[in-house]
Amino acid sequence: MPFLDHLEELRWRILWSMLALVVSSIIAFALVYYLDVLDLLVQPIRDAYDDPDLRLINLSPADPFFVTLRLAIYGGIILSFPILVYQVWAFLSPALEKDEKRAIVPALYLGLILFVGGVALAYFAALPVTLEFFKAFLTTSLEAQLEINATLGFIVKMLIAFGVVFELPIVILALSLMGLVTPAFLRSKRRHAVVLITILASFITPGDAITLTIMMMLPLVLLYEFGIFLSAGVYRRRQKAEAEADREREARLEPPTDSVEKR
C-alpha cells in the first residue's frame, strides 16, 4: 500500500476510534449518573471515617457535573476498549508475522482483565488501608473537609495506578516480541525484580500494615513470573519458526536424490 493510502487508512481508524469513544462516553455518562457510581467511590471514605452519612463538599456549582463527566470519560474508555483494540489491530495486522498476530490479540484482552484486577485490588484492599493511614494524622485541631475534586482525584489516580502496575506481564510480552528481553534475562533479574516489587508494595501500603504489604507483593511477584512464562512462549515459537525456516532453506539447497544417483 502506498504511503498516502496508509495515512488515509490511519485517519479513518482514528475517526472511528474517536466516534466509538464519544458514543461510549455518552453511555457511560448515563450509567454513572443513574447508577450513582460517585456514591460507590465515596463509600471507602465513609467506611474509613465511620460516617455512613459523609458527603463531599463542592466549591463550585459546576463541580458535580465535571466530576461526573470525568468519570464518564474513564468509563467510556473501558466500554470502547474492544472497538479501539479492533481498530489498532486492523491497522497493524498486515505488518505482523503470523505468530505475532496469535500472541498480540489475546494479550490485549488479557491486559484489560489484569487492569480490572488491579483496580479491584486497590479498591478493596489498598484504598481502605491508605485512608486509615492518612486519617491517623488528624488531630483535635484539624477538621476534615473533603473536597470533591481533590478527594475523587486521589481515589481515581490510585485505582488507575494499580491497574497500570498490573499490566506488567503485557509489558514483558511486548518487549519479548520486540526481542529486547529474553526469558533467561528475566530469570537472572528475578532477585532484582523482587526487591523493586517489595519497595513498590511498601510505598503503596503506608503504615505498619506488613501483612497487607505481603499480600500485595505476592500478586506482583506472580505477575512477574507469568510474564516470564509468556516470554518463554514467545521465544519457543520464534525458535520453532527459525528451525522450520532453516529446514526449508536446506531443502532448497540440497539437490534431489534421484538426480544425484543418476549422475
**Secondary-structure element order, N to C:** HHHHHHHHHHH
Class by alpha and beta content: mainly alpha
Oligomeric grouping of the chains: single chain
Report low-confidence residues grouped into runs of 5 or more: none
- The residue-averaged pLDDT reads 82
How many whole angstroms does the radius of gyration measure? 25 Å
Shape, per Cα inertia axes: flat
Strand portion: under 5%
Number of strands: 0
The percentage helix is over 70%
Describe the biggest sheet?
Answer: none
Number of helices: 11
Spatial gap, N to C terminus = 48 Å
Description:
This protein is an all-alpha fold and 263 residues long. 80% of the residues lie in helices and 0% in strands. It has 11 helices and no strands. α4 packs antiparallel against α5. The longest helix has 44 residues. The chain is flat, with a radius of gyration of 25 Å. The model has no long low-confidence stretch (mean pLDDT 82).
Topology summary:
Blueprint: H1 3-34, H2 37-49, H3 63-79, H4 81-92, H5 98-135, H6 148-165, H7 168-177, H8 183-188, H9 190-204, H10 210-253, H11 257-262
Which features characterize this protein?
263 residues; mainly alpha; 11 helices; 80% helix
Question: Would you summarize the structure shown here?
Answer:
It is built from eleven helices and no strands. The protein has helices at residues 3-34, 37-49, 63-79, 81-92, 98-135, 148-165, 168-177, 183-188, 190-204, 210-253, 257-262.
